[in-house]
């Protein structure tokens, strides 16, 4: 393979910058700049250009094949992080033979191709890089550690055992098989299917942890929605006015709630309006509120018991500072009721996220659903015996193939480009 190089840290001025070189010519490139390299370790070296002029003094790390992130020979240059130093070193690498700049995600793609990571681990790494909250970090680390691949191997082992039992019956169809294998096959299929179904059902919760939950603040005009949003955001994210209909579009504020990513939505006041622009805003408010995970209804005291709230929604008396500090109320102006509201929101969102497993993407859900469909068809064929066992065994082969697609062993080339396009150049 070609030898590639790239800046592996963020661009811009910093205390330290890391340039990574990976491929068969990596060590030769390092020697061209730093002289003799440290073997299987690290050492301080002076980097020089083609004329022998000093570029920088850097910590140089070397890795042999199968002992690096990519599975190839790797050299890392830990430089002083000035733009001028980075540019000079990259220019020098560009002048060396047999090297080229890396493409987006190419280091990680080589790790996949060299068996250092499976595809689900690659996805976990992408999520870890993008993680903003503790819940996102924990979920990404579970996936990056290979948990999904490990579970898939357990399910495959059961399915392969069931397939072997069926094929033994097929091979000895003309003889008396002393043991009826059907009960064990059914047990293996049911055990795998139950575990796969639990993982599939948890994908929706896992996606919300990765992408963020949405909480929509809804109510009539002048109910203090924007004031409450600004209080929760700690800044003036929304315009506040006594004029009804000030909020025309949906305003979003991102926050971290007990490690869970949450987007708060300030929506247009719900009422009948002849103003065309306000009516558009109200329509958008209704759509976003319907799609949100939780809706917070701000109402007047007299409407508290008649609010049209769903089972997962919350209702609060709006602007409680004007209603003798109603215990059911909340005020974005004084902060009354806000801590209790945040605790209740966190409790509900934690309960929703508890079902998340290690399958975290729609691709995983589709593969699990396909595998379950093949297991179900195999289960239906079992009682028929005879030639039906041939068909049942084939269904299990297809189920195993679906599980292999989870970790990138088959039929995933068409999605690799999409996955790696989300990576930065140095990863």
Helix and strand topology:
Layout: E1 3-7, E2 14-22, H1 26-34, E3 42-48, E4 54-63, E5 74-81, H2 83-95, E6 99-101, H3 106-113, H4 119-130, H5 134-144, H6 147-171, H7 182-201, H8 203-211, E7 213-219, H9 225-233, E8 251-257, E9 260-266, H10 276-291, E10 294-299, E11 314-317, H11 338-353, H12 362-381, H13 388-406, H14 413-420
Helix pairs in contact: 4-5, 6-7, 6-13, 7-12, 12-13
Verbal overview:
The protein is an alpha/beta fold and 427 residues long. The protein folds into three domains: 3-113, Probable tRNA modification gtpase trme, domain 1 (Gyrase A, domain 2, 2-Layer Sandwich); 125-202 and 359-408, Four Helix Bundle (Hemerythrin (Met), subunit A); 211-353, 3-Layer(aba) Sandwich (Rossmann fold), CATH 3.40.50.300. It contains 14 helices and eleven strands. It has helices at residues 26-34, 83-95, 106-113, 119-130, 134-144, 147-171, 182-201, 203-211, 225-233, 276-291, 338-353, 362-381, 388-406, 413-420, and strands at 3-7, 14-22, 42-48, 54-63, 74-81, 99-101, 213-219, 251-257, 260-266, 294-299, 314-317. The strands form two sheets. A six-stranded mixed beta sheet has the order 3-4-5-2-1-6. A five-stranded mixed beta sheet has the order 8-9-7-10-11, with helices on both faces. Strand 1 and strand 2 (14-22) form a beta hairpin. It is flat, with a radius of gyration of 29 Å. The protein starts with a strand and ends in a 7-residue tail after the last helix. The model is unreliable at 238-248 (pLDDT under 50).
């Amino acid at each position: 393979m070609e030898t590639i190089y790239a800046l592996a840290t963020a661009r811009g001025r910093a205390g330290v910058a890391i340039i990574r070189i990976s491929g068969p010519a990596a060590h030769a490139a390092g020697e061209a700049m730093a002289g003799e390299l440290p073997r299987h370790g690290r050492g301080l070296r002076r980097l020089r250009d083609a004329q022998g002029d000093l570029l920088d003094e850097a910590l140089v790390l070397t890795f042999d094949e199968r002992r690096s992130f990519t599975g190839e020979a790797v050299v890392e240059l830990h430089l002083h992080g000035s733009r001028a130093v980075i540019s000079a070193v990259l220019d020098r690498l560009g002048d060396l033979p047999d090297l080229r700049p890396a493409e987006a995600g190419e280091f990680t793609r080589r790790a996949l191709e060299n068996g250092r990571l499976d595809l689900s681990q690659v996805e976990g790494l992408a999520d870890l890089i993008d993680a903003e909250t503790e819940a996102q970090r924990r979920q990404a680390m579970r996936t990056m550690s290979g948990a999904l691949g490990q579970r898939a191997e357990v399910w495959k082992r059961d399915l392969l055992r069931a397939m072997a039992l069926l094929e033994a019956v097929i091979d000895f169809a003309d003889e008396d098989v002393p043991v009826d294998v059907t009960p064990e096959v059914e047990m293996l299929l049911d055990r795998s299917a139950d575990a796969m179904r639990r993982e599939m059902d948890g994908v929706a919760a896992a996606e919300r942890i990765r992408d963020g939950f949405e909480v929509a603040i809804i109510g009539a005009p002048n109910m203090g929605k924007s004031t409450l949003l600004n209080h929760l955001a700690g800044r003036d994210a929304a315009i506040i006015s006594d004029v009804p209909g000030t909020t025309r579009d949906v305003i979003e504020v991102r926050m971290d709630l007990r490690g869970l990513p949450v987007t708060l939505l300030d929506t247009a006041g719900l009422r009948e309006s002849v103003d065309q622009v306000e009516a558009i805003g109200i329509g958008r408010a209704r759509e976003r509120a319907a799609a949100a995970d939780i809706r917070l209804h701000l109402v007047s005291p007299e409407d508290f018991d008649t609010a049209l709230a769903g089972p997962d929604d919350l209702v609060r008396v709006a602007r409680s500072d004007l209603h003798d500090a109603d215990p059911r109320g909340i005020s974005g102006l004084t902060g009354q009721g806000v801590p209790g509201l945040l605790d209740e929101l966190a409790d509900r969102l934690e309960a929703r996220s508890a079902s998340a497993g290690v399958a975290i993407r729609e691709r995983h859900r589709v593969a699990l659903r396909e595998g379950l469909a093949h297991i179900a068809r195999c289960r239906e064929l079992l009682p028929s015996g005879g030639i039906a066992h041939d068909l049942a065994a084939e269904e299990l082969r297809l189920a195993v193939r679906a599980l292999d697609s989870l970790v990138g062993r088959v039929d995933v080339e068409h999605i690799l480009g999409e996955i790696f396009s989300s990576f930065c150049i140095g990863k």
